[in-house]
Amino acid sequence: MKKLFLLPVFLIAAVFVWAQKSHPDTIQAYYTGEKITLDGKLDEDCWQKAMKISNFTQRELHEGQPATERTKVAIVYNTNVMHIGFWGYDDAPEKLSAQKMERDFRWGTDDNFEVIISTFDDNRNGYLFVINPNGARADVLIANEGDGFNRSWNGVWDVATTVTDEGWFAEIQIPFSTLKFKKKEDLVWGINFERNIRRKNEQVLWQGWYRIFEIEKISQAGKLAGLHNIKAKNKVELLPYVSSGAEKLEEENWQGRYKIGGDANIDLTPTLKLNLTVNTDFAQVESDKVQLNLTRFTLYYPEKRQFFLEAKDLFQMNMGSRNQVFYSRRVGLEDGQEVPIIAGVRLFGKQNKTSLGVMSIQTLAKDSILTTNHSVVRVRQDIGRQSSVGAIVTGKYLNGRYNVVYGADFTYSTSKIFNNKNLIINGSFAQSQTSDSLNSSNSAYRFSLSFPNDWIEYDLAVVGIQGNFNPEMGFLRRHNYRMYYTELQFNPRPKFWPFFRNLNLKPLDINYYVNDQTNQLESIFYELRPFGFTTKSGEVSEFNVQWIFDKLDEPFELLDTIVIPVGEYWDTRWEAQFETFRGRRLSGEFFLNSGGFYTGKRTRLSLAGNLNVNKHWNLSAEWNRNFLDFQDLDFVTDEVGGRVIYAHDPKLNTSLFAQWNNEDDEILLNFRINWIPKIGSDFYFVVNQLIDTSNNRFKFVQTTILAKLIWRFVL
Known about the structure:
The protein is 4% helix and 56% strand. The chain is mainly β. The protein has a domain at 22-228: Immunoglobulin-like (Sandwich). The chain has a 24-stranded antiparallel barrel.
């Protein structure tokens, strides 16, 4: 009787697990010696002979239902190049959403087609390629099934698209030299495909279409078979650059600037890459978005420099709350100013189940900063289907002084708990050693559990940063604390409210901090979300109530004119957010947070707007204001920013970014042209201007004009 009782349970579980596989779940690549013209027309004979898969299933809006528009995919290849053909039939092609055309476009609002390829078939890592009907391209390195999401990786690949009265169609061309893979006669890779039909908010996938999975969940992908005797053509890639320009500082004459250098990429094995860099230059990188800091903690800025972005996720070890053992912006940057890099070497890749990253960079002496060596070694070993263990060592050496950090971490990940749910457990430990400091109470640790699923999400974490933990090549938001965190969120999909796709209810979200040495309470953040929702048309809204405690053992300067005294502070705040669907020509965001703020009150208001003029022109603007009300003083802070993007085509685009705030009283302008004369090579023309707006005047403090050419050679 017991076995008979359990039988329906096992049958139901089997149906849920099986339901995520849509057959066929393997696509056979077709070998051809025929020349393929990259034009998006798919009219060569090989496309007719190749296997086409069309079994796409909805993830949104109606999970498990067939796609409402016919979608087909085929793959053909020769020894050196893979071609992916996409047939996106559409009953109303005039309603396609295709706002973007630039390289590395933000694809969340456009009709698009996405391909993820796991060349190691390791259920963890992959290459994501995204296109839209305009031929705009974006590519991402995926690590740990989306935990690492490196948008700034730029692979060497190309695409051509066409739009007809039947829909939109594409040919994607990916040289095998862009990918890292094992050298075998016959290969089987993980692969998955996704199509988004924006006017319907419909998302369809080939495999793994259950809502708890994204396309990055490569363990749920299908298989690519039929690849025989392929080759990664290039063994050595040279990327020399030359840049020249001029710079003018306030009341000084123009000074010329000239620089040459470059990178060399050498394939030591099909899966291990050696990268050498000399006289590294980042002149073409867009300026950081300036942030006003109204907290007593350190601000985090993302890495934008291309050299550090490839394999970025491999080198990271997360200690919670953005704390990182290795933070690449500590190399070649001091207080936001560039410190020249003399030379560097990196080795990274994967051998069987072992991922390896080694990097050593020497920076030049500048002003009071001494020449410094920055080195890091990172190893990660795959265990089982989705789990891993790893270790890291970082070292900073200058003039006989050193700072070393070593650590270890593990990840247990499964998509099979309770038959078909996700569970992730992480743990990490690190310790620092500094030659001229006290090396006790110098450790950090983190343990976390995450249950990220569709209608219920739960997270739990414990983080400890001891007082003398000192990762000089890392990032710490705050010091000397233990933090206990838990969050519970429900995302039901009520069928009796047809307007809503899902509700967003959060009864529990708490961060509890204590001083690591004294065990005294330092701060608490608790947030309750009684109501939030996402509509079927793509609008998102939240209403939150927050309770905040902060204990100050010493005063801190909020602004030049406001100092918060020592004391214990309990504040209550409420918050409202609303965002319209960005797929519309005109979209916007609204944010309002108001309540107690130490000895006074604060109201934060943020407005943002986006205008899509056409596929070439996109404009955006943002305004943030803080109303600070204290007993003896009122103050208002303003931050204004705007961006204009013009893309002539996917290989030629221009952007203008401007920002200003009334605390610094400076306008920062960044104008950039990027032309891609051939895939892998780039030309940049950049103008940066810093304008002083204090005392109701406009004064040009600094102007930089620069041109830079990077040319790719393959040996």
